[in-house]
Amino acid sequence: MDNIWPRSIREINDLPEPQKRDIYRTLLPDWLFTDYGVDYQTLTIDGQLVVYFRYPAGSRAMEITVKRCTTDIDPMLYLNMADTFNNQLMVLLVVINDLNSPRFNIDVDEHGNPTHLGTTGRNLAAEEAAMKAGLSPGQIRAGLRSFKRAVPVFEEFVRKMGHDLFLIEPLAYHNAIVFERYGFNYIRGYREMVRINEEFRPGGELYLRLSPDKVFRQPEAWKSVRGRSWAIHDGILGHPFTGFQMYKRIGINAGLNTFPNAIW
Prior knowledge:
Order of helices and strands: HHHEEEEEEHHEHEHHE
Strand order of the largest sheet: 3-4-5-6-7-9-8
Number of helices: 8
């Protein structure tokens, strides 16, 4: 595959400022400009800069943060990408927030300490409220349901760098299911995802661990992606949801579905 850009994030980061800015600008989805009025040239709304890049020279990583206005706590869009040690491209984190939706402070505990979205600590009251509002683990706000539109943007970026795939690590069970639906395959974790589905079925090991007296492990949780994800976030597996890695090959849908007939 012919590339028209450098083949790594580090090489892009070493380019002069205008060049790397123009390259990374292509990762901004159209809806930022059409729906929210971000100016494509100046990256401003009403004259205020709302798109922030972090791409220091010599670094193998880059970050994009897009806010609706400079005073907002949370971004509309956050993207973190990096090179892997074997020269693949990895999407480390994508967050798309609906800033008009209620905020749930799952990102800090009752003492104000960061929880890193529930991975190093938990705010159980905020998590329960978020769950009851229909959010999934790790969400501080509802999303904009825009990941589907983001995948072609990533694919085109990767193609121009001369690669035929990119990697992503699902941070939670529901993330893996979403990625499956958009054509991703597994490098690591497929068998575990199949096992999780089997054990959540009636009579399975995880199904039997559900209980009406456990907020995040209600008996009906096995039926839905979100319910399972909350139970897994709550520790029903006996260990954290880690070690999963997926990839998307440009223009190819892997066709995987480890939770057939799932409801969300």
